[in-house]
Amino acid sequence: MAKIIMKTPLVEMDGDEMTRILWQWIKDILLVPYVELNTEYYDLGLKHREETKDQVTLDSAEATKKYGVAVKCATITPNAARMPEYNLTQMWKSPNGTIRAALDGTVFRTPIIVKGIEPYIPTWTKPITIARHAYGDVYKNAEIRVEKGCKAELVVTDAQGNETRELIHDFAKSDGIIQGLHNLDNSIAGFARACLNYGLDLKQDVWFATKDTISKKYDHRFKDIFQEIYDNEYKEKYEAAGIEYFYTLIDDAVARVIRSEGGYIWACKNYDGDVMSDMVSTAYGSLAMMTSVLVSPDGIYEYEAAHGTVQRHYYKYLKGEETSTNSVATIFAWSGALRKRGELDGTPELCEFADKLEKATIQTIENGVMTGDLYLISKLENKKKVDSKTFLEEIKVNLDKMM
Prior knowledge:
Helix 13 links the parallel strand 17 and strand 18. Helix content is 45%, strand content 22%. Helix 1 crosses helix 10 (311-318) and helix 6 runs parallel beside helix 7 (218-241). The chain is built from 14 helices and 18 strands. The strands form five sheets. It has a ten-stranded mixed beta sheet with strand order 4-2-5-16-15-6-7-14-12-13, sandwiched between helices. By secondary structure, the chain is an alpha/beta fold. It has helices at 17-31, 46-51, 55-67, 82-85, 95-103, 185-202, 218-241, 250-259, 270-284, 311-318, 328-345, 348-366, 372-377, 388-402; strands spanning 4-5, 10-14, 35-36, 39-43, 69-72, 106-111, 128-133, 142-146, 150-157, 163-171, 176-180, 206-210, 245-249, 264-268, 290-295, 301-305, 369-370, 384-385.
């Protein structure tokens, strides 16, 4: 069979540890035999980030803007323990955070549903996509420890030097703490458009929730911007598509989510999305069975796995020990990127290959062949645990039947 040709490159961002090993195996076993891969390669492994003083991360983000589609392997965000291990000159920032900021992107995470892996919430028969606003709030906060007797104020100075003051608290009787949060109208607007565009792409309802009854200016601003953009730019499109935009309070949203069957996009502020994405992924079964795509307001896509670099398995691999690492989310990162590249380039055969790759992966698990993490939670009666590479080879057997 002739290999599928890619008209335009996609940006390939390599990563770290066990996921870097899986990355190469996935290419060798599941991609290269079928597709003439056309990628612009960037090594975001921590060693190379150190060598380039993290310039490679910035370069990969710029390339993503140029080509419109990227696929990223999991990467290390270094802590103090990693400094001597990799001889780092500084604790480099999260590549994900750097790329999100460069693209002004929103992160969408969706569980991959397979038979035998039952959600902890019985009503969830369809996937729930979490859309996380990846800017501001507590992640860009300013914090101060406050001593007893101090008075804390919120002060805003305009361009002419005039001050507006708001008392935060008078710490007359106790020590305490204060925290300052901010956000930007254009970032919130970009978040809203990314969510509403994604709803149209998936033909799914979009839910958004804040605590505007308590936060009457900060959270209310999110609510107002979402509603204004929906009314002015998306209302007619949503009505024509037969889907809806729905706003409610965050506590009401949580109650509705638990009672729902799934099948919608739940847009969350930064902290809410951070927490709820882990809650949803765990409730569906596994973080390793979760897709993640970063979408910019102007339609740039970066696909990645939602999990980390699987450090423990990597150390076992280096010792020559067998690992049974779940590669599904990384496979779906590749399939998602290839499908989007095919859609943008008008290459239906590339889209069809991506569909078949995902079906072959799911079929392998539903046939009872799976990695150790899934083996522990699968309800299938006839199942077997296989090592990391064998799992990919078993997927190839099913993929060959479909090609």
